[in-house]
Specification:
about 240 residues; alpha/beta; Ribosomal Protein L25, Chain P; Alpha/beta knot; 2 domains; six-stranded parallel sheet; 6 helices
């Protein structure tokens, strides 16, 4: 399988694509590629191109050696996820990226153990999670990279949804059946923290046009629900 290289924001059909230092290190030292190796470069916006690695100049570059390709646009499916403790965010971003989630919004709920109030710590965390998303997109063969926002408050996260016509919040006591939901995109699903969203937060979701849906199974841990919920939504809108 040809190695995939994310080059977000670059014009892929340019004569030469100058590699960022981290990408150059990854190709040279981690993957041990040699001059002339062919990789697939993708821009994170649904475009990709075959390119030859050039290591002979002052800066490592990729030289396109094939036509620019545009992949089929994915249905927009967004996950709003309450910040959990530990490294659980990594374990959510990877599989959800592989499944086809297009947007992630991380927010601090009332019952979140982690809030990331320190801006410097939050910035470091977001940079790490961005790398996790990019790696998952590369490894799963996606030509697009999901957007990642946060950490936000719940009100800010709700505002980020915009005009999405299908808005769901997971709630074990929810009375809205999946079979009654429209198959519309963009679509958003909210997954709360351990202990769930508070009654006040659920009311805020109600006011923002969200339908409360159960998963129809025993109560799940937040990291499990954050995979099952988007999977059901992706299947519901025909994206799986």
């Amino acid at each position: 399988m040809t190695l995939r290289v994310p080059l977000q924001g670059m014009q892929l059909d340019a004569p030469r694509l100058e590699l960022p230092a981290a990408t150059s290190h990854y190709l040279r030292r981690v993957r041990r590629l040699t001059d002339g190796a062919v990789v697939v470069a993708f821009d994170g916006r649904g475009h990709e191109i075959d390119a030859c690695l050039t290591l002979s100049g002052p800066v490592d570059t990729l030289v396109p050696c094939g036509p620019l390709r545009t992949t089929t646009e994915r249905p927009r499916v967004r996950l709003l996820y309450a910040l959990p403790k530990g490294e659980k965010v990594d374990d959510i971003l990877r599989p959800c990226t592989e499944l086809g989630v297009t947007d992630f919004v991380l927010f601090a709920a009332e019952r979140s153990v982690v809030h990331l109030d320190d801006p410097e710590r939050a910035h470091r965390k977001m940079e790490r999670w961005q790398r996790v998303v990019e790696a998952a997109a590369r490894q799963s063969g996606r030509a697009d990279v999901p957007t990642l926002r946060g950490p936000l408050s719940l009100s800010e996260a709700l505002e980020s949804v915009g005009d999405d016509p299908l808005r769901l919040v997971l709630d074990p006591k929810g009375d809205c059946a999946w079979s009654t939901l429209p198959r519309l995109t963009p679509a958003t699903v909210i997954v709360g923290p351990e202990g769930g969203l508070s009654p006040r937060e659920l009311l805020a979701c109600d006011r923002s046009g969200f339908s409360r849906v159960p998963l129809g199974c025993p109560i799940l841990r937040t990291e499990t629900a954050a995979i099952v919920g988007p999977t059901l939504l992706l299947a519901h809108v025909g994206a799986l």
